[in-house]
Design brief:
Helix content is about 65%, strand content about 0%. The protein is an all-alpha fold.
Length: about 180
């Protein structure tokens, strides 16, 4: 059973209640993780509508596969993996992945500006080509390793490293234009 509404449930208590098909627990689990997971999907997809769709699909999958959660990691990390995979699948479906093309993006040497704001950085990240943005977000924001990111993206580790390198260069160039 669920505890008093004033006392927050632990992830383990929510998991147990969700596995018993308790709708209130499922709603609480969704409420606990929806904001962080939406942000993760939004950074990858750069579209509120696509991120919302990916989030909804991911949570359907979470509830369908909750019985297979082996508790070898935190519940939030497991959910995040599902959200990331769903967002990447959506990105591929939208055919917006762009692999590195050296002729399209020259590589200037640019230093970060001292008055860089989070808002400006978020805007610049959102303007990156989809493949660069997905790689950058997985590695620099979500903390995946190159091996993990490459597996999620369906590319080699070398491609993951190259994509990150060129994403950072393009990001520097975009930020340079903001501060001229």
């Amino acid at each position: 059973m669920l505890a008093s509404p004033t006392l927050p449930l632990t992830d383990e208590q929510l998991l147990t209640a969700c596995l018993a098909h308790n709708r209130q627990a499922q709603y609480q689990l969704y409420q606990r993780y929806k904001t962080a997971m939406f942000s993760c999907a939004l950074r990858i997809l750069n579209s509120r509508d696509l991120a919302q769709d990916a989030l909804q699909d991911a949570f359907v999958q979470v509830f369908q596969q909750l019985g297979s959660f082996r508790q070898q990691s935190a519940l939030g990390a497991w959910i995040r993996t599902i959200v990331v995979r769903r967002a990447l699948l959506t990105l591929r479906h939208e055919q917006r992945m762009e692999l590195y093309d050296p002729d399209s993006h020259p590589e200037p040497l640019v230093a970060w500006h001292d008055s860089l704001t989070g808002e400006a950085l978020e805007k610049a990240i959102g303007e990156l080509p989809a493949g660069y943005r997905a790689t950058f977000c997985l590695l620099e924001v979500e903390g995946y390793s190159h091996r993990e990111a490459a597996e999620l993206l369906g590319v080699t580790e070398g491609t993951s490293k190259s994509q990150l390198y060129h994403a950072k260069r393009l990001l520097q160039r975009k930020l340079q234009h903001l501060y001229r």
